Amino acid sequence: MKFVLLAMSDYANEHDCNELYASITTIANKTSLDIKTVQKHILTLENQGYIQDTGRRKGRTNSIKIWSMDLNKIISTPKNGAPPKLPISTPKNGGTKHPQKRVIDPLVINLKKRLEEKTPDELLNPTEIMFLKPDPVDVELWDSFMKLRVRKKASQTKRGLTGITNRLIECVENSISMNDMISLCLQESWKGVNYKWYLNHSNDNPQNNQYAGYK
After folding, report:
1. Are 195 and 171 in contact (CB under 8 A)?
2. Structural element, H or E, at residue 34
3. pTM for the full model?
């Protein structure tokens, strides 16, 4: 089922990363599954809340469904593929209650594998981009920042997002939260990240900000 979701994510709307559209035949060819199996998996994805039918259609015959993808649900599993550890507690009967067994999510495994196989300058799809979100960053902020970068024609590659993550870590090292930095980027329409921009902006001295024109 989740192979189908990964395949669908490769056909995201260029201007809205949450929207997906691809014909059943296209998904079947990409996943090497038969059409009935693809239809069954798409129905399951819809029933489980991963995707929703927007009611809009696309294509020459206006028959290809446009789906909305729930990125929050997709990335709700930690990046190591396992649920958070539960503390060991003692039931009232005196027995030992063991922590929840760690289960690897196939979607996470395949995302990690796909990212490892990507070349540094190969474009990423929306699911891969969201998977690379640093844990402290708010999902909606990250999504908005990525849409801004698309509008600014910034590089949405593994190299590009690794650079963003490294700059955000530098922000934290300089006592600036990742969310605050990204919020300022959205406010100023900056497609990149640098803690110096934040500090200069906070000092209200744009004349000293050598990065002020980086749009």
Report:
1. yes
2. none
3. 0.58
Q: How far apart are CA 42 and CA 102, in angstroms?
A: 27
Q: Using an 8 Å Cβ cutoff, are 187 and 199 in contact?
A: no
- The answer to whether 99 and 87 have CB atoms below 8 angstroms apart is yes
Are the CB atoms for 147 and 185 separated by under 8 Å? no
CB 52 within 8 A of CB 71: no
> CA-CA distance, 144 to 191, in Å (whole number)?
11
Q: Where are the alpha helices (DSSP H) in the chain?
A: 2-9, 24-31, 35-47, 71-74, 106-117, 126-131, 139-151, 158-173, 178-188, 195-202
Strands laid side by side in the 19-20 sheet: 19-20, 64-69, 51-58
> What confidence tens digit (pLDDT) does each residue in 32-81 have?
888 888 888 888 888 888 888 888 888 888 888 888 877 666 655 444 44
- Residue 215 burial (CB count, 10 A): 9
Q: What domains does the chain contain, in order, with CATH numbers?
A: 2-73 (1.10.10.10), 132-208 (no CATH)
For the segment 140-170, what is each residue's pLDDT rounded down to a tens digit? Answer: 899 899 989 989 999 889 999 999 999 999 9
SS3 81: coil
